[in-house]
Amino acid sequence: MSAAAADGSPDIDRIFTALADPTRRLVLEVLGERRECSASAIARETPVTRQAVVKHLTVLDEAGLIEGRRVGREVLFRVRPEGLRAAAAWMTDQAAAWDRRLRRLKELAEAPTADQGHNHTSSHGPGESRRRTS
Amino acid sequence: MSAAAADGSPDIDRIFTALADPTRRLVLEVLGERRECSASAIARETPVTRQAVVKHLTVLDEAGLIEGRRVGREVLFRVRPEGLRAAAAWMTDQAAAWDRRLRRLKELAEAPTADQGHNHTSSHGPGESRRRTS
DNA sequence: CAGAAGTGCAATCCTGGGGTTGCAGGTTGG
DNA sequence: CCAACCTGCAACCCCAGGATTGCACTTCTG
What we know:
Number of helices of chain A: 5
Helix content of chain A: 40-55%
Largest sheet of chain A: 3 strands, antiparallel
Structural class of chain A: mainly alpha
Largest interface: A-B, 46 and 44 residues
Shape of chain A: elongated
Distance between the termini of chain A: 47 Å
Order of helices and strands of chain A: HHEHHEEH
Oligomer: homodimer
Mean pLDDT of chain A: 80
Low-confidence stretches of chain A: 4-8, 113-134
Number of strands of chain A: 3
């Protein structure tokens, strides 16, 4: 049942993890070209064993990037554009947020700010408690 | 020198690989909040050692998601929104392509097509030459 | 009904890469 | 000039996960 992408939460982690693997992207591509496809069918036209394909399909499904339905003795998978779209939206948002900060930083640098003193951080007082930095 | 994202090619593989790691996303987030940051600074406010941070910064840089400039004795990194944007665009394109095919498939199924015979594929002729399917 | 084709599951192998430690080389500031 | 701080390798540990093999079960076809 996918376990993800059921609602509006894209589950970024699963999606990026799924998309990070080349073989998985290959499988996705094949699935994108054909309309519906079984694991065995994909395995037949890629240099990957059926079992490996199944694993990848599972990951892709959990990421909400594909969905499968059982027909007779075989399971047909198809691509789910919404998943990718959601992830794309997330990335665009992030980029926008960064842009905002950078732009702000820039115009703040150009403005004749009076108080420019770097406040020394003052965070190295007693008790480091951080991880060893070497 | 990043080695990537110099031109218009987003280098999907590097970007997704970079984004797939949680720690790397954390580093990115920190870098997104602060305007510019050194590796040591990031290491100081995350549960990661400086060396690990450096590795992640390298990966992010090669993916074109950040850029660094040497100042005095330290190297300051900043986020690069364009990289993310490019990747997002790629994903959106993919999703669109899939949508197109699925839509086409659907209207083709609804249309009263005369010739509906499944053409049997006929691809299992002589000479499999594929990998062992078990 | 028997064989072929497809799926599901479990055990195993093995490489990649995230994380750490250790040390050497540069810069900065008192 | 010396101490503090930051960066830059390099070697090493360790485990997640990608890939394979083997077998049992179900479904379709002749």
